[in-house]
Automatic annotation (TrEMBL):
It comes from the Bacteria. It is found in: Cytoplasm. It catalyses: L-proline + NADP(+) = (S)-1-pyrroline-5-carboxylate + NADPH + 2 H(+); L-proline + NAD(+) = (S)-1-pyrroline-5-carboxylate + NADH + 2 H(+). NADP(+) binds at I7, G8, G9, G10, N11, M12, A66, V67, K68, P69. InterPro entries: 6-PGluconate_DH-like_C_sf, NAD(P)-bd_dom_sf, P5C_Rdtase_cat_N, P5CR_dimer, Pyrroline-COOH_reductase. Pathway: Amino-acid biosynthesis; L-proline biosynthesis; L-proline from L-glutamate 5-semialdehyde: step 1/1. Catalyzes the reduction of 1-pyrroline-5-carboxylate (PCA) to L-proline. Keywords: Amino-acid biosynthesis, Cytoplasm, NADP, Oxidoreductase, Proline biosynthesis. Belongs to the pyrroline-5-carboxylate reductase family. It comes from Rivihabitans pingtungensis. This is Pyrroline-5-carboxylate reductase. GO terms for cellular component: cytoplasm. GO terms for molecular function: pyrroline-5-carboxylate reductase activity. Its EC number is 1.5.1.2.
Length: 269
């Protein structure tokens, strides 16, 4: 039985809690200052909620830091004296292990996690990083918690958190951006809003399902639809002329650079 306390009951915490309650085998509590949110979590998932931090977190407990990065230093300040060896998982963006450890008075049992919003429906992708001092049992506990909300990838270096932020962490927004464009194109071609939305979403869902089912290289799947001299070829040629792939790469790199910058800003004393 895992004893897990979430500090913060926002969307990402709620998504992970939803998965954990389905998987069972966990005793979950949530520290959340908002009374309405506490009531919602208690009613929806049957978890224990409270407004203030508990007095003590023992070595057999797991603490999940699920607050906004800007709130993290203050939360850690209140948490430090209450930790007695508990495993700490942080899903807050930007703040590195060294800063977390410093704010927690030298606590070293820490795992950093970068989840994404599809975790809300059990389809998330989470990148995890643990420093060398974190043992296999703690890594397994972190893995089990995040696997309840989707798939997981372990990162060898902490800088990988910035890399995965640029791909899967922020990636859903890139996909939504393309869907927006496809919906707009459908509207301009005369489809009503509901039909345009269904055409775009259905196309994305079907294409992803086909890619997973077939196991073929993505470029091959794309080529299978792109007949020589056909209609799709003209669309792909237009995308290439606009350097769409290069734009995606530039966007991902800009995202990573901002992740690094935020990490520096948030971690400064």
């Amino acid at each position: 039985m895992m004893h897990i306390t979430f500090i913060g009951g926002g969307n990402m915490a709620t998504a992970i809690i939803a998965g954990l309650t389905k998987a069972r085998g966990c005793q979950i509590s949530v520290v959340e200052p908002n009374a309405d949110k506490r009531a919602q979590l208690a009613q929806q998932f049957g978890v224990t909620t409270q407004e203030q931090l508990p007095v003590y977190f023992g070595s057999g407990q797991i603490v999940v830091l699920a607050v906004k990065p800007q709130q993290l230093r203050e939360v850690c300040g209140g948490l430090a004296s209450r930790l007695d060896g508990a495993l700490v998982l942080s899903i807050a963006a930007g703040v590195g292990v060294s800063a977390l450890s410093r704010w927690l008075d030298g606590h070293e049992r820490i795992v950093r996690i970068m989840p994404n919003t599809p975790a809300m429906i059990g389809k998330g992708v989470a990148g995890l990083y643990a420093p060398r001092g974190v043992d296999e049992q703690d890594r397994d506990a972190a893995q089990r918690i995040m696997a309840a909300a989707g798939s997981t990838v372990w990162l060898d270096e902490e800088s990988g958190i910035d890399d995965i932020t640029a791909i899967s962490g922020s990636g859903p927004a890139y996909v939504f951006y393309f869907i927006e464009g496809l919906i707009d194109a459908a509207r301009q071609m005369g489809f009503d809003d509901a039909t345009a939305r269904e055409l775009a979403l259905g196309t994305f869902e079907g294409a992803v399902a086909l890619a997973r089912h077939s196991g073929e290289d993505i470029a091959t799947l794309r080529a299978n639809v792109t007949s020589k001299g056909g209609t799709t070829e003209q669309a792909i040629a237009s995308f290439d002329a606009s350097e769409l792939k290069s734009a995606i790469l530039r966007g991902a790199r800009a995202c990573r650079a901002r992740s690094v910058e935020l990490g520096v800003q948030l971690s400064q004393d």
